[in-house]
Amino acid sequence: MVKKESYLDRVLGRIETLDATNLANLAQKLARERSYLETIFNTALEGILVVDEDGEVRYANESGRRMIGLKESDMGSAILWRLIPGLRDSLGLEEGEPLRDSISSRELELTYPEQRYVRMYFLPFKESEGDEDKQFVVMLSDITSEKISKEETIESEKIASILLLAAGVAHELGNPLNSLTIHLQLMERTLSKLEASPSSEKLSNSLQVCRGEVDRLDGIIKNFLEAIRPQEPDFQILDLSLVLEEVLEVVGSELNDRGITVEVEVVSEAPIVRADRNQMKQVFFNLIKNAMEAMRPGGALKIVSRADEEKIYLRFGDSGSGIRQSELSRVFQPYHTTKKTGSGLGLMIVQRIMRGHGGLVGIDSQEGVGTVVTLELPKRNRKIRMLEG
């Protein structure tokens, strides 16, 4: 397919044939168009940056400069990692490593030039086909009011509706489970009065299996309700690698059935934090479950732990189908799911628990390649700052 030339391409193609008057007219027109576009970008409330793969800021509109404390004269030389400390670690980049060619989403706390929370999206783009110079559009949305406001929001209303739904579901499921438990007990009593035989022993084993499954379903309901109810974390000193081992042991048989390999790597020090053991188990279980469902049999899940001076980072990377760019901004919304049987609550619960621990969740994904979910938690010696969920 022949690429359609733009007006600028046509003009530049014959620029050598223009005389001084036409060149001056062209320069004036380009200046007007630039001023027009600058006006549009500068009226936007969202920050808009363009950075190269090394984090050098090549463009920033007024909102973007105001959010990160960038002077207009510093564009072209300022590095994003220096303006936003901790961002490079959050993205999992080593010193000197370039930005990856994938979409990313982050929630960050900025302390300069003023205290605020922002939601950040990285979107790769190229100016033209065959262009080897990688660039990224960085969108910054101020979500401070969303984080600290105590007024009811649409999100809190959705969560309230989920609580009502969960209570109804628990009630509807609880009644038949209680009935099953009673009838199983009656069957066991009747069976105990019969003479021992291979058939009765086999039936007794089957009844025990049924009792175990009923108890498991009852536990699932209780865990579900505990997960979505806002609860104060029971903070204790935890080694997250040990908590992770417990979760992997629980889901180990399912991972084996799917032929999924799991690699756990602790890059630096042990990931020790102040956290609620059960809530962190819920976070790990949800992320591993999502990764399993995103991968085909024979996939790979890699979990990496690393730390800097203030935070612990845990990255869950899968070799699954990835997330479409259009879906990325909605993955934390209640009921939003791309799976046929998904509830759309898993990542919402993860985000709520992480906020309750003063932590953040980040997502990097490339369609057809896989997804990396990054958990950021304060170190145990760092004072936890609660975020409104």
UniProtKB/TrEMBL annotation:
Occurrences of domain Histidine kinase (ranges): 168-381
Domain PAS: 33-75
SMART domains reported in the protein's UniProt record: HATPase_c (SM00387), HisKA (SM00388), PAS (SM00091)
Gene Ontology MF, one: phosphorelay sensor kinase activity
Catalytic activities: ATP + protein L-histidine = ADP + protein N-phospho-L-histidine
PROSITE patterns attached to this UniProt entry: HIS_KIN (PS50109), PAS (PS50112)
Keyword entries, A-Z: ATP-binding, Kinase, Nucleotide-binding, Phosphoprotein, Transferase, Two-component regulatory system
Pfam families in UniProt: HATPase_c, HisKA, PAS_8
Uppermost EC category: transferase
SUPFAM superfamilies registered for this protein in UniProt: ATPase domain of HSP90 chaperone/DNA topoisomerase II/histidine kinase (SSF55874), Homodimeric domain of signal transducing histidine kinase (SSF47384), PYP-like sensor domain (PAS domain) (SSF55785)
EC number per UniProt: 2.7.13.3
PANTHER family reported for this sequence: PEROXIDE STRESS-ACTIVATED HISTIDINE KINASE MAK3, SENSOR HISTIDINE KINASE
Protein name: histidine kinase
